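thought: fold this chain, then report.
action: predict
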Amino acid sequence: MPDRPSDMRVFEPAALLRWARKHGLASNSRDEHRLAAMRVDVLARGALPRGDAADVELTARWAVFICWLDDQIDRRGLGSAPGELEHFTAPLREVLARAAGPSEAEAPQARVLAELWEPTAEGMSDRWRKRFAADYGDFLDACEEETALRRSGHRLPLAQYVALRRRTITLLPMLNVLERSGHAALLEDTLVDAQLRELRLALADVAGWANDLASQRQDTAAGQDNLLSLLARHHGCTTGQARARAAAMIEKRRAEFRTTAAELRTVSALPPPLLRELRAYVDLVETFLTATLHWLETTGRFAPDPERRSRLG
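observation:
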């Protein structure tokens, strides 16, 4: 059986480090220091302020895996050779297609995904399972597209970068995880489908752009485009001016997010039980956005020195 999060009263970050070490997501002291500085427990606790320890730990494990995979691609150059990233992602796609527990014969990254999948998918609907697989598969597609562009030296125009960025940020798969760990399912009803899609995409945009603000130094050092370099090139402005433009974009998108959230809370055509379900989901999404921005601003996810631990307790 997979190593499930323990049902303890208080979630301890040290348990997360032991789990990451066991599964090869922190294979040396440098990785361990980087994981400690990331403080994904801050993100998980913020996303689930009333969650029990098992739900917080499951969410934190997903965050570790997502950050680890992101680092493999962006910081360690996975995909610098044609076919390399596709070879890495193929076992992940097999897990999504199979929707089953881990096999010892699988690649390590696939075993971790399969282990996370089993307790997350337990009790969830078939529609949720298909949506998660589609969202995570689209994330893998986007990562492969991004690395191919990077190898070719092709630089996307601003609008195309924004469209790709919302797919590479992994926010939609993580939001699907939170339906399980936050016990608030997405309401699938034609009356609100379009607004919920807009809410989810606005979340991905705000988080992706804020992530780019936080990671600008590392992206520049790696020779990678991000929102700031795109804005500077698009407008012919300085990095400082691009940062101000990015901040304005984020605030405008957050305002759109808030407007959509308010509209969803007051849908009059839904019966009270469905409206309560919808409001619970909107609350979850809003809390997750707040937690993500707090995490990016105050912890060591993009600390200049990976050996530096976050000072936050």
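thought: worth noting. The chain is about 70% helix and 0% strand.
final: tokens above.
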